[in-house]
Amino acid sequence: MKRREPLGIDLTPIIDLVFILLIFFLVTSVFKKEELALILDLPESEAKATEIKDEQIFIELNENKLAIKGIEVSFESLEDNLKEIKDNKKAVIVRIDKNTKYERVVKVLDLLQKYNLNNLALVTNETKSKN
Fold this sequence. Notes:
Layout: H1 12-28, E1 44-45, E2 57-61, E3 66-68, E4 71-73, H2 75-83, E5 92-96, H3 102-114, E6 120-123, E7 125-126
Parallel strand pairs: 1-7, 2-5, 5-6
Antiparallel strand pairs: 2-3, 3-4
């Protein structure tokens, strides 16, 4: 009588499946980007660049719109979002369009001061050298 050797598991289909799943998750995943919602024309400055960290709060302001953390909001919603911030040492990054009325800027700064969020940075574009 002929003795049968035990058959091994064919790993080729399993490897194919793993690669297909890997490609699927890479293609469908959303890569984290800066939380920006508005297209702004920032003023230019010669200030040095600072490092942006994940735990910072982004506020964007232009002539007509306001956004926090990449979501367009009203001033009332902005105030509600600022109320919820427990750590007042958290950095607040403010991007303001250069054509925005000063009154709107002051309104945002007043809300930040009201909730004692004083760790503030204003974002500008780097000045281009004319050499």
